[in-house]
Amino acid sequence: MTATAAWIVERLHDIAGPQRVVTDEQELREASVDRFKKYTAVHGIFDGPLPCAIVRAADTAQVAAVLAFADEHRINVVPRTGRTGTEGGLETTVEGTIVLDGSDMDAIVHVDPKNMQVTAQCGVPLQVLEDAVREHGLTTGHSPQSKPLAQLGGLVATRSIGQFSTLYGGIEDMVVGLEAVFPGGGTSRIKNVPRRAAGPDIRSVVIGNEGALCFVTEVTVKLFKHQPENNRFHGYLLDDVHTGISILREVVTNGFRPSVARVYSEQDADQHFAHFSDGRCVLVFVAEGPAGIVEATSAEIERVVAAHPNTLVDPALIQSWFENLNWGTDKIRAEQQAMLAERRLGYTTEISADWSSIGAIYDSVMHRIRTEFPRFEDLTMLGGHSSHSYQTGTNMYFVYDYRINCEPREEIEQYHEPLNAIIVEEALRHGGSMVHHHGIGKYRARWTEQEHGSAYEMLLRLKESFDPNGIMNRGTIFPA
In this structure, are strands 393-403 and 344-354 parallel, antiparallel, or unpaired? Predict the structure, then answer.
């Protein structure tokens, strides 16, 4: 039989209990989108199919029971925890979808200072986890801008990265082991060991799957000593973004790992550092860790920068910026009020590429938007910054703000999607990756095959094997 919404809700009551099944219409409306549709959402526009229910799972057994039920009856499931997704991965684009929420699974299972790791359930907020390990003089090293709101399961599922990644790495470098539930209700646990050569690294089947393969229920991540008393802050004004990229490359490829290594274009710098940027690019470094390493890293930064024309910035200004990076509910509310009052907003699209290509991608994106985007005159800011660097290359956050001169329902089609498309197309054309850390979601899925090329077959085989009935987050990663 065809499963009706009422029948699905009734069965979910049996599985999880009525108190854990949410059917309030406003909550369902809000659950049907993520921050990709923040402008239409703030106007109360929810045009896509609403989920039939939200299940707030109490434990792994309930997650397994819901997924087994959904798989048996071919019901689409959208997994979520902290709800900070930005690429449409949390949108419910299928009628009768179940939103499976792990936010109530919020126990810190074990802090293990001896083995430098902590185990926590998927719904533990990252800030709560960080506060807990700080009591032991430790840190996760993970600090995305969404830190006050993001939860551990979603960070793993979206292959998150934090502001200190050049030192600590991305979430894929931090995860030691995990537990995940697959369609049909099968639960897999990957044990906590420092390394092993027992076949392919199966953690990577789960990390970054965006709820399209499984539901992450528990995670163990590495810990590091927290030594903020040694932090050194460096800031410089530069004449162009290409010089900044060259400096980042030299510092990193010489073997040094500042926790923060960034360069902002003139326009983006004016948005963040207007009180001192003076229309120039801003280069930022933070060195942290043991005193000797901080001293050596700082000396290298100063040596490399000195070979290029620059103006020194007061380190206190960089420290002040550094301490106010993250977004919580207060900043989101302020953004919503500004969207309503001023009919404007901003977005980002982040990509990555090798050192040889990143500058060309930046230039070609700027050129195409300025010459091809029909609503260019509505842009109030167009720029970018590099904020995550590696031995072989770096990322680029393209940032675009605009006034909205159309009906709210048309905003995405008129502005966000065409800008996003130009950036993705240029990254792929130059051999880079179309997404660095926000995930593919549903709005970059049409380029997934082009992103992976001949390796796309491997990705498809994962989907066919782990989700043969296609119930997991339809349209995310894999085009619908």
Answer: antiparallel
